[in-house]
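User: Please fill in residues for this 341-position structure.
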């Protein structure tokens, strides 16, 4: 859309914030009619049923999750969440059409030198789980697999633990001035949080270094969240998430989250792929590439690695651009509503 051309990356011509549209195909009229009936006639009533059931499951999970606050004093809260999150979150994702989640371990080795290595892939307390940000579905997947600490990343690189529910609520949300400039007083550095998590045994930490969601066509500019992180000592697990779709993309960048969930549930099936790079592979990439001096060197290296894992290009747009995009989008939407009255 030309009216959003301002948020097209100049180097790649990628528009990372607009909801992706299905690719044009030469399908027959009969198949097009069948897809329309499936998605827009049968899909909506089925979506309402799915939302009712998943809402009940979320409510039950919320009630059981509140018990973890009591268990926090005994240090068993994460073990408890590792038990209850898969019981509720995996059925919800199944209801939403994610019947099978494809996962694979990737390598940065090239050509004939690729070798199968035995890695210790176990996620440990204090480990960092670095992932691109596309949707609230990402958070649900990582929660049911690892019951980690989720953090909000601020514009200056500081972080604040927000928990699972806070992470879901903030996925794709409007970046406030506090988010961009760190208006919160209860923040810390990622390296300090990782050290505390390891000492206290409270779990790994999920980091979305882009600070906001994109449509997955490019990797947004990383925030300086890795300042002070020693890549030689810190265990970092890299996760790259991608969605395949025909009619509706699960990535969420703009608009009402409830409307997005509704149309997600209206699809017959949704497809998610998770690509995983072990910490040892990341360390091997450091041997092959000497990091230049500068506080953003670690962020730049990790962004390059995640781009390779996802096989997407890095772009120059970031969190501030997303805020400006949402401001413009809301202005156009409110103007359209006023004209329709």
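Assistant: Residues filled in for all 341 positions:
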């Amino acid at each position: 859309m030309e009216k959003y051309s301002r948020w097209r990356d100049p180097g790649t011509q990628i528009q990372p914030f607009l909801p992706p549209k299905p690719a044009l195909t030469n399908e027959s009229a009969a198949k097009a009619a069948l897809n329309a009936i499936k998605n827009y006639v049968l899909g909506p009533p089925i979506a309402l049923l799915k939302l009712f059931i998943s809402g009940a499951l979320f409510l039950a999970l919320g009630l059981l999750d509140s018990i973890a606050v009591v268990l926090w004093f005994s240090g068993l809260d994460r073990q408890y969440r590792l038990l209850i999150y898969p019981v509720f979150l995996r059925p919800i994702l199944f209801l939403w059409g994610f019947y099978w989640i494809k996962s694979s371990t990737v390598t940065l080795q090239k050509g004939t030198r690729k070798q199968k290595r035995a890695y210790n892939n176990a996620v440990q307390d204090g480990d960092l789980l670095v992932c691109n940000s596309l949707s609230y579905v990402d958070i649900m997947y990582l929660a049911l697999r690892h019951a980690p600490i989720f953090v909000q990343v601020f514009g200056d690189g500081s972080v604040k633990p927000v928990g699972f529910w806070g992470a879901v609520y903030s996925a794709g949300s409007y970046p406030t001035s506090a988010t961009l400039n760190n208006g919160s007083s209860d923040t810390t550095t990622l390296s300090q949080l990782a050290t505390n998590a390891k000492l206290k045994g409270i779990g790994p930490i999920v980091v979305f270094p882009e600070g906001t969601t994109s449509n997955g066509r490019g990797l947004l500019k990383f925030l300086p969240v890795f300042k002070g992180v020693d890549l030689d000592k810190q265990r970092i697990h890299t996760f790259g998430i991608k969605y395949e779709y025909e009619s509706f993309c699960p990535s969420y960048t703009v608009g009402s989250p409830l409307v997005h969930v509704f149309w997600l549930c209206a699809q017959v099936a949704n497809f998610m792929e998770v690509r995983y790079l072990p910490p040892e592979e990341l360390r091997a990439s450091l041997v092959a590439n000497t990091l230049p001096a500068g506080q953003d060197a670690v962020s730049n290296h990790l962004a390059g690695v995640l781009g390779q894992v996802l096989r997407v290009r890095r772009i120059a747009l970031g969190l501030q651009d997303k805020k400006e995009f949402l401001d413009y989008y809301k202005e156009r939407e409110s103007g359209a509503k006023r004209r329709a009255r």
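For context: DSSP finds eleven helices and nine strands in the chain.
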